[in-house]
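Q: Structure tokens for this one, please.
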Amino acid sequence: MSAAVSAPVLQTCELALTGMTCANCAAIVEKTLNALPGTEAVVNFAAEKAHVRYRPAEVTPEALVAAVEASGRYHALLLTDNSRAEEKARREAYYREERRAFLISALLSLPLLGQMFFMFGLGGGDMAVMGHEPIPRWLQLALATPVQFWIGSRYYVGAWYSLRAGSGNMDVLVALGTSMAWLYSAVVTVLGLHQQHVYFEASTAVITLILLGKIIEARAKARTSGAIEALVRLQPQVAHIERDGQLEEVPVAALIPGDIFVVRPGESVPVDGEVLEGASHLNEAMLTGESLPVAKAPGSKVFAATLNGDGLLRCKATGVGGHTLLAGIIRLVEQAQGSKAPVQRLADRIAAVFVPVVCAIALATFFGWWLLAGDFAQALINAVAVLVIACPCALGLATPTAIMVGSGLGAKAGVLIRNAEALELAEKLQVLAVDKTGTLTQGLPAVTDLIALGGASAQELLHLVASLEQGSGHPLAQAIVDRAKGDGLVLATPTKVQAVAGRGLSGEVDGQLVLAGSPAWLEAQGMPLPAGQVAELQASGRSLVAVSRNGAALGLIGVADPLRESSRRAVARLRQQGVAVVMLTGDNAGTAAAIARQAGVERFEANVLPADKAGAVDKLRGEGKFVGMAGDGINDAPALAAADVSFAMGAGSEVAMEAADVTLMRNDLNGVADAISLSRATLGKIRQNLFFAFIYNVLGIPLAAFGMLNPVIAGAAMAMSSVSVVSNSLLLRRWKP
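A: Here is the predicted structure, written as tokens:
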């Protein structure tokens, strides 16, 4: 019998990429990385980044960078907290270099374009044939050559590496198209064939306009990743820490867990921590989207980048560097922006075969015009127009730019989306299953009723139950313990404590056997309870803990967990969006009905054991519905994982947050409605972008093939198509939570 071998743990890293010109370039880099052993990579063309999962035993981050660099065309930088500034500086240097190349290209191309418009204004083509062009052809050749082979060298290099990798990209189309126009014109000029047209302005204008489009596109793309930049800028650079009784100003990077730091009025909190002394209000809007300041006192948690009000806080560092909540949010947003939505698969499949198909169409156009019309020059120029107009840049940008803007907006609103698939799936939601405690309710229950039976006193009842429950993490147990401590009771140490899942606890307190759990559990043990009081308390929305001592019923403890003020409005919003809400709770039917009535929930399931919540979600999915799940507790994690798309309340357990697709930082069910609204807005933009990209090529290629599109106009249209797609994605920024 062979022993089970656990799968190697995958680690993740991000690479910043340069040198990509279109979606096919991204596909080449992705293919290169995925060819390495133990590697799963996704390349985002719009963000110019690769998100990589790898097995450290088989490959290293340095090997990933080396694999990209080995192509000779593309360059990679391993992104770390320390390399972000380097990556930003490199991109700015690249932008300056591109702008310089464009200015040189524009200066050399403008005389040729000016001549073209001058000749058109005078009745055009005949002037050229008669040899009366304003600029001599040898000078046109001198102006066009550096644009073609110096400024345009990038396209030859990119085309070579693309073809060597067995693929085609934008560089292939541009290099092929402009080279045909330049070579034909150069031959006509050198041989002195004055009766033939030359097309130097076409080759230079296409290169210049594509450069202009890339510059505008780069600036627009930078705005799509503005959410990440804004989050990074929030990180404070210095902190005031206590050393030998004195305050010292040190870099935030130097802090370690356990350091004592001070946050003065008006300052930002440098790292995550816990308040030791002082009281104040912190503005946490930058993390949660919540505009109201949050009160802080000793024992409260504070988070990096939140803004202190008018109080002085002395805190102990608990999370530093990459372990702060802010760093986690940045990683989650980057992960979402670097992932691929399912809707992008169609675009990827088309882009993979696009270049060969376009080359075939251009070839057919060339021979069709030459053989049927007998005009070699016209055949050549129409084929060039086909090659130039068909670039798939817009197709590659359609989905990722919208995902980047949408996920950034979500983070700003306190809706953290784990990946693009979750963002796409949220719009399909038909049914939302919600946990009651901590999701619909505040999750801070308090004891409201102490009903002693059999001659016991209320304090005796409270003492026994609180002693038994003090080791439990259940919210009801915590409420009972807090009430006992608040009443000044000294709790005993329980022994032989056993938990019965979904039922309660049993154990010995002061030598007495005590059971505390649901009324149904005690009655099943042969201990009857006053049915009238039980029904009355449950009908009023109380959660009941029934108690027995040595086999006899001892009393009832009523605990109320108030409904969140926002829950009723959130349920109403979800219903307006066409989403039915189903409440799942382990409480009895009476309590569940009362809470459901208060929240406006029409359907609920009571007495659902923790292990059965995932089954309840599967049952809803079995009805043919697209089902979401919202919860905050550890016992919700299986149900969150079972749902088509899941939402975790931000203040809930880390297990629930790990299992969920979307984390709601504000602990407000309205965040689910916001996520659905954002998903629908983002998917609307993606569909618009894909429509524009497809229709652009569907209309443009036939126009060019039938001789109705000049290569210069084709170059301008191709350059601006990418800009239009990015600009359309930026319109998402109008969305408000």
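A few notes: Residues 1-7, 122-131 have pLDDT under 50 and may be disordered. DSSP finds 27 helices and 26 strands in the chain.
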